[in-house]
Amino acid sequence: MQPVCLTFDNGPEPTTTPLVLEVLARRGIQASFFPIGTKLHDPARRALAERALAEGHRIGNHTLHHGVPLGRRPAAEAVAEITGAEALLHGLNAHRLFRPNGGGGQVGPHLLNRAALNHLTTEAYSVVLWNAVPRDWDDAEGWPDRALAAARQAQAPVLMVLHDLLPDAMAHLDRVLGTLTDEGARFTPDFPAACLPLVAGRPAPGYELTKICQEENAT
Questions:
Q1: pLDDT at 104
Q2: What CDD domains does the record point to (predicted)?
């Protein structure tokens, strides 16, 4: 079985993030969390992000408001989604990680516009994509089967997107991780190279950034 890298988007949530952190700690697994920037205005949610960092997980930028993917926004608005979130992440995003929102988990040129890509390049961000999206946010009971199938069938290292949003969905997390462990999965905090089109502001060799970026800025 291929290595599995776990990531959690759209938190932190007081009803769910502690459960996720407890499962990861019990399993000895390090993951990465990509919170929505505006949630960090709330001291309780900010404290959860700080807890995740203190427990060895990485924290990244997942835009200020989420919503419409950046490739479908005006240039200045897209950049503001990144800079606004980064201001609220102060002290948390040491690795300069950025994950665009996919609008349902799709990868394509809707993810970024040229202004956003230029900003990420200039500011030396690493862009973290994905190759497994079991849709836990809209199917709390069915996502475990899709997650297990994605890991079992993978021909390359897996970067899985989960969400520390719904407690009913994350109630299955320990079972999924236990099953994968029993089947020989190795969990790693390292992102697969194929899911990193931009590393510290530099395009990955051979990666066509037009795959994730509109050719022209929106107006």
A1: 86
A2: CE4_NodB_like_6s_7s
Q: What phi and psi, each to the nearest 5 degrees, are found at residue 213?
A: -140, 130
90 catalytic? Reply is no
- What residue segments make up the domains of the chain, in order of their start? 4-211
Catalytic pick from 57, 62, 119, 163? 163
Entry pTM: 0.96
* CATH 3.20.20.370 correct for 4-211: yes
- Of the candidates 35, 25, 1, the one whose C-alpha atom is nearest the C-alpha of residue 173 is 25
Exactly one of 9, 66, 110, 136 is catalytic; which is it? 9
Contact by Cβ (8 Å): 12, 45: yes
Regions of the chain with pLDDT less than 70: 216-219
Q: Note if 172 is an active site residue.
A: no
DSSP string, 172-217: THHHHHHHHHHTT--B-SSPPGGG-SEETTEEPTT--GGGTB-SS-
